[in-house]
Design brief:
Number of helices: 7
Largest sheet: 7 strands, mixed
Helix content: 25-40%
Radius of gyration: 19 Å
Low-confidence stretches: none
Shape: globular
């Protein structure tokens, strides 16, 4: 079920920072209490292949997100200890040394279960063992959320495991959201900062389409 237009779940989750500190982080509170937008991106596993390229890409773009009053948070179902080991592994060894934004450690899968982004299928109850058995790795897909200053989800998307994200698209979406918030206009297809937007009415779309 989509969360767009709804408040992000109010849940404390373990997190790790580059200093090796484990702490509780509440994504909703980060947005509301700091009056900032949040980009929360989930990835499947530490010490894998596409994942470090994404974490480094978000790190490289961190100054651009900060200019836009936006907090970046990574997340997976790995433990804080595994996050810290990866943070202490150099880039040329497949690590994420140099990443400075917090990374959620949703090892109990409480938040990812609420979001419905876990790779599990064919849940079956095994009467002999009294357990629920599933297919899949029980890790998250590449889900991304943009949350506004009020804690409302304005964007969500989910990529399958092999498909890395384009970080620039999230900067564009934040620019569009900020334009809507500040100007009261809507942003048409392929809109980028500095391009013409339009009024959300019949005359507005007619005028826009007549010149594009």
């Amino acid at each position: 079920m989509s969360l767009v237009g709804k408040k992000f779940p109010d849940l404390n989750v373990d997190a790790m920072n580059e200093m090796g500190d484990t702490f509780k982080l509440n994504v909703l509170e980060e947005a509301v209490n700091n009056k900032k937008k949040v980009v929360l991106f989930w990835y499947p596993k530490d010490f894998t292949f596409v994942c470090p390229t994404e974490l480094h890409a978000f790190q490289a773009a961190l100054p651009e997100f900060e200019k836009r009053n936006t907090i970046v948070i990574g997340a997976s179902c790995d433990t804080p200890e595994v996050h810290f080991a990866w943070l202490n592994t150099s880039k040329d060894n497949g690590g994420i040394e140099g990443v400075t934004y917090p990374i959620l450690a949703d090892s109990n899968r409480n938040l990812s279960s609420i979001l419905g982004i876990l790779d599990i299928t064919n849940e079956q109850y095994d009467e002999e063992t009294g357990t629920v058995q599933v297919e899949g790795d029980n890790v998250t897909y590449r889900a991304t959320y943009i949350i506004d200053e009020e804690g409302t989800v304005q964007h969500e998307s989910i990529n399958n495991m092999p498909l890395g994200r384009n970080v620039g698209e999230y900067l564009r979406l934040i620019d569009a959201l900020t334009h809507v918030q500040e100007k009261g206009e809507v942003c048409p297809a392929n809109w980028e900062e500095g391009k013409e937007a339009m009024s959300a009415n019949r005359d507005g779309v007619a005028e826009y389409l007549s010149t594009h």
